[in-house]
Design a protein that fits this description.
mainly alpha
Length: 87
């Protein structure tokens, strides 16, 4: 996985990006109690995954390599949409 971050040009931000993903997951869990946290965490994770798709697209990688990030972006969009009903 380290070599992937190097290939994408994000080797120096690997720990930061991983930490943001972990915090986003914790935010989703905390969002089960606090609806605002659910909306915020799902939005930020969706943005993160869309950025991952755009990086892979810019590097002209095959579509099947974009599918995991695209799936997570779609899942977070669904969570965001449903969490907005709480307001």
């Amino acid at each position: 996985m380290i070599s992937e971050y190097e290939r994408w040009g994000y080797a120096s931000q690997r720990i930061l990006l991983g930490s943001c993903q972990i915090l986003g997951g914790l935010g989703l869990l905390l969002g089960l109690v606090l609806p605002l946290m659910l909306s915020l965490a799902s939005f930020l994770l969706m943005c993160m995954m869309l950025t991952a798709v755009s990086v892979r697209f810019k590097l002209k990688e095959p579509a099947y390599k974009m599918l995991p990030a695209l799936s997570y972006a779609l899942l977070n969009l669904i969570i965001l949409y449903n969490s907005l009903d709480a307001f």
